[in-house]
Amino acid sequence: MAEQDWMSEVRAMVGREYGRVCAWDEVNAPMIRQWCEMMGVDNPLYTDAAYAASTEYGAIVSPPAMLQAWCLEGLHPNNYPPGSTTENPYEVLRLLESHGFKSVVAVNSDLSFERYVKVGERLYYTTRLDAVGEEKTTALGTGFFVTLIMSFFSEKPTGDEKVGELLFRVFKFRPANVQAAEAPKVEMVQKIKRPKPGVSDDTRFFWDGVAAGKLLIQRCKSCGTLRHPPGPVCVKCHSFEWDTVEASGAGSIHSFVVMHYPEVPPFDHPNPVGLIELDEGVRLVAGLVGAKRNEIAIGQRVQVEFQSFDDGELTLPLFRPVAP
Amino acid sequence: MTHQTLSGRAAIVGLGATEFSKNSGRTELRLAMEATLAALKDAGIDPSEVEGFSSYTMDKVPEYEIARLLGCNNVKFFSQIPHGGGAACAPVMHAAMAVATGVAKVVVVFRAMNERSWYRFGTGTYGFGSTPIFENVNYGWYMPHGLHTPAAWVGMFAQRYMHTYGATSEDFGRVAVAVRDFAATNPAAFFYGKPITLADHQASRWIAEPLHLLDCCQESDGAVAMVITSAERARDLRQKPVIIKAGAQGISGGQQSMTSFYREDITGLPEMGVVAKELYAQSGLGPDAFQTAVIYDHFTPFVLPQLEEFGFAKRGEAKDFIRAGHHARGGKLPINTHGGQLGEAYIHGMNGVAEAVRQVRGTAANQVADVENVLVTAGTGVPTSGLILGTA
Predict the structure, then answer these.
(1) Predicted TM-score (pTM) of this structure
(2) DSSP for B371-382?
């Protein structure tokens, strides 16, 4: 892949807004008191109700620096309250990781405030990917400064009110040397996904069909020849006109391999893969599922089924042995 | 224009190579320069005389950098051949065509790679992307299912071949045992002094059924280079001329790169059939003309249909040829006498061309008697190529 291809994918993400992350609890005195104890903050405005009542605020308020704490997930990672977005505001970091910029260091965490937040208010925040800088080389290594802006709101019946903002900037980089790789870093766990197919105008119908649970075969409109893999033109009559027919999904194993090594995630090994001859007369390559070892054999009858991977990002036709 | 033929017009007059290893410890460019300078010295030709280059598209060393480091001022021909090991013989063919037509008088062909220490072809983690260029779309039929290594693609053909003709894993093993026997007595081979038995082959772990580990060639660092000039000039140079009697490339019906699974019959290698027919037509030779051959052996199963495409055995009968030991030391057509890519090194087949040069010169570690003609083939399963080299 040329670098500009994936960088343009990164650039296209800039400006993207990610949905709200809610708070487990409304702003409350016990959490404020515990936070102040841990942080060594002894301002009575935050903990002494009688004192707070005598001030211009009239009641206990939350320390401004505690803003981020209200919407954290808690002890368990990614355990956000109901109503929170399932989008990942850090997806751009994952993309950079997949291109070798595996290390990360936080460089800015700048809070700004509109006003104090009072006990009883319920907060949420939204995130915007603000910027991805040009490639820079620092003492740590070569990479990109990525800036995210989280805007915090208080829920109000009359319209939610912005109470503060957090500018969070990281440097996502390829370490200059091994020592640098051991610099402070945030662990980003990336689930390895199945490789996705390249899809072109000549082949999109197939993948759209699979996503809809249909196994479609390209058919020449001029001479009726079926063909797979698909192409723009008929190899028999050179007509560019084509449509599709839905295959029965029944076929037999024309050949096969059983993959053992290297064990490449996310695939299970051994991984049997068949060259399937469909009853309509064309062949395609597909994984075999639910097959006992003695059923992985040339001539074995099989039937298509569709399986979804990676939270629906990819659907594949797979084949299961059936009785003749 | 009068009828012209390629046969006999050009010769390989210089041969150079580095050592073969798992970690060369130096750049590919340096490997290429070491092999190229050795080949020119072997030929007795000054670097300034080089007028052309040919290599593989997969070679990361650009010919212009070699030209710059050699001090060439008059380079008039350069080409690169695609499809990995399928290129192996084609740079020599292109060089011969350039020499035969007078486009370039002296051409260097080379292949330099740190394939083992810098990158590996068999990791199954190719970076195919989502842009709709053909290669991404094409490999999109295989990668999502995890059919993602050269061994796996070859295995799909091998399984069907075994089913159709009754060849067995032991037959593939007999190929490996014979070439490792040659490697064991070739000091330049990585597996020098390390022969294997058929039992070793059968006991080696699965890579992609039906392929065992010992059906798969090793991965290597190293470089090979050759110098090609006219047959006429070759007569006056210091080495015994190795005449290029034929050279051809091949693509046939239903051709894909490693995945020609959609042909009516997937037990043959019709693109190698195209090469065979053309090599025989150019040279006027046939299967009986060879004392030895270098048959591309990245994976053992494809050795069998190659023997069939060239007429050494009838369709489906290569297993019998191999069971009789005709391919082994002392057989009627010993193949891969350097130890092949299974035993000597995997330099994308260029080291096989080098072995053919040595056999014609009479300088091979496992020299076959009275060599007049040697067949060399290139990578299989892909668009491919072949050569016939021989004595004047």
Answers:
(1) 0.74
(2) --EEEEE--SSS
